Amino acid sequence: MADSEDSRNDQPLHLMSRPEMCLDFANTLAYRGSSRIESIHNFDELVRWCGDSGVTPSALAARLREWSGRHPKRTLEIFTAAISLRELVYRIFHALASGAPPDDDELDQLNDAMRETPARTLVARTDDGFGWEVENAKPSVHLILAPVLWSAGDLLVGPQRARLRECSNEKCLWLFLDDSKNGTRRWCSMQACGNRAKAHRHYLRHKND
């Protein structure tokens, strides 16, 4: 690829989005109610998470890694913007999971970001099924996180919003979609926060025995 930042690959991208993808991205900062553990510290880790999570196709991920070495300033700007978008997504869905309306200004910011993403106008076949065919534009936060932003909008306007939950562990506060039959799931993971809560209740019952 040429060294111009405006250079692009003419081959279209095929991007896929899941309703929970935005929540997965918000959860890359763990234990928000206590020590806060960061999963994404730099642009390379952002690209790795996007690739591992299906946000970014492997060809685009490879292109971004190659591009980042030549554009350190833009790379840092994109990374900083990505973390800001992550926190925006978390605040909106944290409010909804807590039973409060999201802030109007923050919804406006999400709409502004979604407006900058590639248009979803064409469905194309992929090796794994189907994807949205979009222009393979120059690297930007709105291209890299397009499926995350799409999923945020789809979750907000879709019926799955009713299944939005926040982990009842006040130290955790991860967001998730409740897939239980009776809709009463309280923990991001029974194996993690659920078992910790169970063990704590057992301790409280028996500490004075």
Strand order of the largest sheet: 1-5-4
Query: How does the overall form come out from the CA principal axes?
Result: globular
Compressed to H and E, one letter per element, the order equals EHEEHHHHEEHHEEH
Helix content: 40-55%
Query: Roughly how many Å is the radius of gyration?
Result: 19 Å
Counted by DSSP, the helix tally is 8
Q: The biggest beta sheet, please?
A: 3 strands, antiparallel
- Low-confidence runs of at least 5 consecutive residues: 197-207
Which class of secondary structure composition applies to the elements?
Answer: mainly alpha
How many strands? 7
Mean pLDDT: 89
Strand content: 5-15%
Instruction: Give the terminus-to-terminus CA distance.
Output: 70 Å
Detailed description of the structure:
It is a single chain. The chain is mainly alpha-helical and 209 residues long. It is 47% helix and 11% strand. The protein contains eight helices and seven strands, in the order βαββααααββααββα. A three-stranded antiparallel β-sheet has the order 1-5-4, with no helix packed on it. A two-stranded antiparallel sheet has the order 2-3. A hairpin with a 2-residue loop joins β4 and β5 (129-134). α2 (43-52) runs antiparallel to α3, α4 packs across α5 and α5 (104-115) crosses α7 (146-157). It is globular, with a radius of gyration of 19 Å.
Features:
mainly alpha; 3-stranded antiparallel β-sheet; two-stranded antiparallel ribbon; 8 helices; 209 residues; disordered C terminus
In brief:
With 209 residues, the chain is mainly α. It is 47% helix and 11% strand.
